Amino acid sequence: MKAAVVVFPGSNCDKDTFYVLKYVMGFDCYYVFHKDHFHEKEFDLIVLPGGFSYGDYLRAGAIARFSPVMRSISKAAENGTLIIGICNGFQILTEAGLLPGVLMKNKDLKFHCHDVYLRVDNNKTPFTLAYSEGEVIKMNIAHGEGNYYFDHCKEIKDKIVLRYCDRNGNITEDSNPNGSVLNIAGIVSKNGNVFGLMPHPERCSEKLLGSDNGKKIFESVALYLERRKDHAFA
User: Fold this and answer.
1) pLDDT digits 0-9 by tens, 177-231
2) Which of 29, 143, 200, 219 is catalytic?
3) Banded pLDDT at 232 (limits 50, 70, 90)
4) How many CA atoms, within 13 angstroms, populate the side-chain half-sphere of residue 170?
5) For the whole model, what pTM was predicted?
6) 87 among known catalytic residues
């Protein structure tokens, strides 16, 4: 499987993500830089990592959406390529219109960097096949603009993948670290091939780091692509 990690000026989770994809998962992985172009069918998976692209000037992700590489990413999304935006990557995908909604400053206007509990509300996506529906997992967050908002909540209910919860899986106001509508932590696009989440799965993909809860996202991708390949040759 061929994967790409997109690097923008200010990205700082690109090496962590690359390490997990290449050395933990064993994917054929490459860096793609913000001024690069590539064919829409070149990669099986494209990951936009966390960080502070272009210093988060104007708004997080607002300048990165105009990077030359985004034209290739948009074409890849239209082609059905699997795309994951983590934290700042999620912000970029919403700014580029590849995912619905916006990510605003956290409700308390503070930067949050700590572990959170998440509930898997949809395990039918290419990114969550390895999880059980309703499974409670723990991941790290590190953001100041993770407050997800969308005007018409009814329209995105079927796109919700992860929600902030307590350790027992209850969706509560206290378990919501940033004020996101419906406690949303991760969503997929209408076609299901673009996934954005604020928590960092690359930071919890090895038990050596205290948790490998995030590894299942990448395992799900591998499982989905293998199934798609088998179906194509059936």
Assistant:
1) 999 999 999 999 999 999 999 999 999 999 988 889 999 999 999 999 998 877 6
2) 200
3) low
4) 7
5) 0.95
6) yes
User: Does residue 202 have an active-site annotation?
Assistant: yes
The H helix count followed by the E strand count for the chain is 5, 11
- In angstroms, what CA-CA distances link 167 with 86, 137, 156? 22, 8, 25
Q: Is residue 106 very low, low, confident or very high in pLDDT (cuts 50, 70, 90)?
A: very high
pLDDT of residue 65: 96
Cβ atoms of 30 and 60 closer than 8 Å: no
- pLDDT surpasses 80 at 38: yes
For residue 91, which of 19, 146, 133 has the smallest C-alpha distance?
Answer: 146
Bridge pairing between strands 184-188 and 160-165:
antiparallel
How distant, in Å, are the alpha carbons of 3, 104, 108, 217 from that of 28? 6, 34, 41, 17
Q: Is 10 left (phi over 0), alpha (psi -120 to 50) or beta?
A: left
Which long-range CB contacts under 8 A does 19-26 form with residues at least 24 apart?
Answer: 19/202, 20/201, 20/202, 20/205, 20/206, 20/215, 20/218, 21/45, 21/47, 21/218, 24/205, 24/206, 24/215, 24/218, 25/215, 25/218, 25/219, 25/222
Alpha-carbon distance values, 164 to 16, 48, 103, 141 (Å)? 23, 22, 15, 11
Residues listed for the chain: 234
Mean pLDDT of the chain: 95
Q: Taking every pair of C-alpha atoms in the chain, what is the biggest distance, in angstroms?
A: 53
30 phi/psi in degrees, rounded to 5: -140, 150
| Catalytic position from the list 13, 87, 165, 204 | 87
